[in-house]
Specification:
The structure holds two protein chains of two kinds. Chain A has one helix and ten strands; from the N terminus they run H-E-E-E-E-E-E-E-E-E-E. Chain A is α+β, with helices and mostly antiparallel strands. Chain A has two domains: about 30 residues; about 110 residues, Cupredoxins -  blue copper proteins (Immunoglobulin-like, Sandwich). In chain A, strands 2-1-4-10-9-6-7 form a seven-stranded mixed beta sheet, with no helix packed on it. In chain A, strands 3-5-8 form a three-stranded mixed beta sheet, with no helix packed on it. Helix content of chain B is about 65%, strand content about 5%. In chain B, helix 1 packs parallel to helix 9 and helix 4 crosses helix 10. The chains are: A alpha+beta, B mainly alpha.
């Protein structure tokens, strides 16, 4: 019983070590994101790294052109958004940060430091009171 | 399936039929909500791969370490409850305190209904939503573990039921007659259905939007009618103690903690000895499994299962259902599938255990080990709702407290407050999540090993049976970690 448990323990430790090693070796390419750049993942999964000012556009029916994009920042980066609206809207609202900018005139500019990590919705609040997500803000710690 | 006879084979009782009918009625009553709105402004980042790997490895190492140092005589099977000093019991458990707690419970119950019907429709600004889904549903789990079954004292339906039966005694000079005996086979099954319907109201009823305060008001009223009818049929304390959803649900978690009131005495018990007795009732396994399932579903719907739900949703809308109805059907199907999957995992473990020599019948075995999953259910709750609970309680005790209806009042001068989403960083959230799952796993294994020593006649057979439970626990914990690593991804 005792030797069997020891054997099993050794087996578990070996498996665990293998898993950790595998993950450590895998995740090397994860931290190559230069500060000040934003990684954009579009709705169809294409990832591009672009200049700091992030452009979004909203069509006449109040929906995001090209689907809901994910904007990924590192904590401490400056988030700079330029939102082009086809029609006047109530406002652009960033959840969690509670940043909002009026949408009567286009384009709408928003700039704030990414000082809370997590996942947040960026929404357009339409004039009729409805709202839609236009982008997802993802801030890594 | 967990123990207890399948529902269909039994004579349907009034209470159960009423619950089902009310659930269907509720489904028809809920209006379509206008648009999606996130209740919580910040969602957790998925647990990173390296932490997932560490968590999973830790689980394996701890599991085998526990097996190798395991004790050979059952230590937790007898509940060692002993009363605290008399003065302390009298100070905590006495009629004025009972009346006060009941009155607070009824008062909050009234505010929920009033805010539901008369308050602002924005769920983030309305007392009924924040209170029911966070302070009540999650906060009372925490309080139950720490302080014992406090909900029993505050239970508004119990307080009103006792008030009415007290009034009846006063007028009629005798206790109200109880027409039916609570059937033993019904056990905790009404609570299983109740938990499913509650979570359905929270996550699915609004058809893709946040639950509206109006829905919560209607749901509370329907549930109250059912509870009052069942209390009249089976007796107040009988229904509250055995059939009532929230009492059964919070009472389950209270079994993990040290404190319990018996009669008029407050007492403490040895760590973890409260849980084993809890499971000896039909439907107990189903209640703990449904708790794990609903949390899993909530965690998976925006992560691991998002694609599958989306696919089902599109098939439903292809069939001509409206978008909210497609959402309801797709999510209901997946909620039930998750429940079935979680139950299947437990059933497989039990059947594996049954192959060991000297095993009791499968049904008895399933019931005997049901309580060992309570720590896992608690760990899942902590892992999935820890951050959201911290945020929503800031709302509860600032602007929701001072302005419960969202009409601009400022009762306590805290209406200007808001939620600071920076209160915990992602690193803290991750460590709490993984830590909760690992600790829950260890406690679950401890309970299971000890139970096996009580069930099997030899240490050897008990140890053998625990290879199967170990596999079940590792699967649950790694599944929990997996859900976290896929959350909101």
């Amino acid at each position: 019983m005792q030797s069997r448990a020891v054997r099993l323990g050794v087996l578990a430790a070996v498996i665990a070590a293998a898993v950790v090693l595998f993950i450590v070796l895998q995740s090397d390419d994860n931290d190559s994101n230069d500060s000040g750049q934003v990684t954009v993942t579009s709705a169809n999964g294409v990832t591009t790294t672009e200049d700091p000012v992030q452009r979004l556009s909203v069509d006449a029916s109040g929906n995001p052109v090209g689907g809901v994009k994910t904007l990924t920042y590192d904590k401490g980066d400056q988030v700079k958004l330029l939102v082009t609206l086809a029609e006047p809207e109530e406002e652009i609202h960033v959840h969690g940060y509670d940043k909002e900018a009026p949408g009567r005139t286009s384009p709408v500019r928003l700039s704030f430091p990414a000082d809370i990590d997590g996942i947040f919705e960026i929404e357009v609040h339409r004039l009729d009171g409805s709202e839609a997500e236009i982008a997802t803000l993802k801030v890594n710690p | 399936m967990p123990p207890g006879r399948p529902l269909g084979q039994n004579r349907p009782t009034v209470g159960l039929a009423a619950l089902v009918v009310a659930g269907l009625a509720a489904a028809l009553l809920f209006p379509d909500a206008a648009s999606a709105h996130a209740l919580v402004g910040r969602k957790d980042l998925p647990v990173p791969a390296w932490l997932f790997a560490w968590g999973a490895s830790l689980v394996l190492i701890i599991s085998f370490a526990l097996l190798s140092v395991a004790w050979t005589r059952a230590r937790l099977q007898r509940e060692d409850w002993r009363p605290l000093p008399r003065w302390l019991s009298r100070a905590v458990v006495n009629p004025p305190v009972e009346v006060l707690c009941g009155a607070i419970g009824v008062g909050l119950f009234g505010v929920v209904i009033y805010a539901g019907f008369r308050g602002i429709s924005d769920p983030t600004q309305n007392f009924s939503i924040v209170f029911v889904f966070y302070t009540f549903w999650l906060g009372l789990v925490l309080l139950s573990v720490l302080l014992g079954d406090v909900f029993r004292a505050f239970n508004p339906w119990r307080a009103l039921g006792r008030l009415v039966s007290g009034g009846f005694r006063l007028v009629a000079g005798q206790s109200a007659p109880v027409p039916f005996r609570y059937p033993d086979w019904l056990g905790r099954w009404p609570a299983v259905l109740g938990v499913l319907l509650f979570v359905w109201l929270e996550l699915i009823a609004a058809g893709g939007a946040s639950p509206s305060p109006h829905d919560v008001g209607v749901g509370t009223l329907i549930y109250s009618v059912i509870t009052f009818v069942c209390m009249a049929l089976f007796g107040v304390e009988e229904w509250i103690g055995r059939g009532e959803t929230f009492g059964s649900y919070f009472g389950m978690f209270a079994r993990l903690g040290p404190f319990e009131v018996r009669g008029r005495d407050l007492g403490v018990r040895k760590f973890l000895t409260g849980a084993p007795q809890w499971a000896a009732v039909p439907g107990a396994a189903a209640l703990v499994l449904v708790s794990i399932a609903v949390t899993s579903f909530d965690g998976a719907q925006e992560g691991a299962l998002a694609g599958a739900i989306r696919w089902t949703f599109e098939r439903c809308s292809d069939l001509g259902l409206s978008l909210p109805d497609s959402f309801r059907v797709a999510n209901t199907i997946w909620l039930l599938l998750v429940f079935a999957g979680v139950s299947l995992l437990y059933w497989l473990g039990i059947n594996g255990m049954h192959t060991v020599r000297g095993s009791p019948p499968v049904k008895q075995l399933a019931r005997s080990f049901a309580h060992t999953l309570i720590p896992i259910a608690l760990a899942y709750l902590v892992a999935h709702y820890f951050s959201a609970f911290l945020y929503q309680e800031q709302a509860q005790f600032t602007y929701i407290l001072s302005d419960p209806l969202g009409h601009g009042s400022d009762l306590f001068g805290t209406a200007g407050g808001g939620i600071n989403y920076g209160i915990v960083g992602s690193n803290t959230v991750w460590y709490v999540q993984v830590g909760a799952l690992v600790i829950g796993h260890v406690v679950a294994l401890t309970l299971a090993h000890d139970r096996a020593l009580g069930v099997y006649d030899s240490v050897r057979n008990a140890s053998r049976s625990q290879y199967f439970m170990l596999a079940v626990m590792v699967a649950f914990t790694c599944f929990g970690l997996f859900l976290l690593s896929q959350a909101n991804a």
